[in-house]
Write a structure and sequence with these properties.
This protein is an all-alpha fold. The chain has a domain at about 100-230. Helix content is about 45%, strand content about 0%. Helix 7 packs parallel to helix 9. The mean pLDDT is about 80. One of its GO terms (cellular component) is Noc4p-Nop14p complex.
């Protein structure tokens, strides 16, 4: 049993400062799987070590994707380790052999959580979702459903379901992204509108968006060159702008 603070410090450096120097990295399987099951930030940090064991040392983890799916909660867009988490999630969802129901569940859950996410997270997660559609064309039914969402009395997707296969994500539609097309931030609305068109085959590079902050968004807007907007089409001639205004005979704006 480790204190929470020490647990985090160990997991942060484990994948690059410990595992590469061990003769048998598989000895850390139990430690990492237990940490992954704790939840919260500790589970997010355990992903790095698990990624190495799964890809380099043939670790089999039957419930891995189920637990990864259940790590997606509203806090995921606000945590300190957001960039690391989504970088690894992108790698884990890169295989074309994943079943469509699983990828659709991830897409739907990320989209539902996006409704309350800050703009800097949305500018990362929308291209992330588009990349998933490019890798898994079978999931495009969420966007191009022939019947359309209008024929649904309610969304069949079950957000509270912990098992992705039981969430009914493939039966749903991606109305959340359509809602984001009316977002107050123009860059978010523009990014969400991409799904109205056919996606290009080339994946979006999200590496530069993973650590995008609210400060950077604000700074970008402040540095934009201001455009002069004409507010008057007729020169002011009096206090009320009328040509033959009685006030214009006795008062002046100069």
């Amino acid at each position: 049993q480790l204190p929470t603070g020490l647990y985090k410090k160990v997991l942060v450096i484990l994948h690059d400062s410990v595992l590469p120097y061990m003769n048998e990295p598989t000895l850390m399987m139990d430690f990492l799987t237990v940490a992954y099951g704790i939840g919260g930030a500790i589970s997010l940090l355990a992903l790095n070590g698990l990624f190495i064991l799964i890809h380099q040392h043939n670790l089999e983890y039957p419930d891995f994707y189920k637990k990864l799916y259940n790590l997606l909660d509203p806090s995921i867009y606000h945590v300190k380790y957001r960039a690391r988490f989504f970088h690894l999630t992108d790698l884990f969802l890169s295989s074309s052999h994943l079943p469509a129901y699983l990828v659709a569940a991830f897409i739907k859950r990320l989209s539902r959580l996006a409704l309350t996410a800050p703009p800097e997270a949305l500018l990362m997660i929308i291209p992330f979702i588009c990349n998933l559609f490019r890798r898994h064309p079978a999931c495009r039914v969420l966007v191009h459903r022939p019947a359309g969402p209008a024929d649904m009395s309610e969304d069949p997707y079950i957000m509270e379901e912990e098992e992705p296969s039981e969430s009914r994500a493939l039966e749903s539609s991606l109305w959340e992204i359509q809602s984001l097309q009316n977002h107050y931030h123009p860059d978010v609305a523009k990014a969400a509108a991409v799904l109205n068109q056919s996606l290009s085959e080339m994946e979006d590079d999200i590496s530069g968006l993973l650590e995008l902050s609210a400060y950077e968004l604000f700074d970008k807007e402040v540095k934009k060159k201001a455009v002069d907007v004409p507010l008057e089409f007729e020169q002011v001639r009096g206090l009320f702008g009328k040509k033959n205004d009685i006030f214009a005979e006795h008062f002046s704006l100069d």
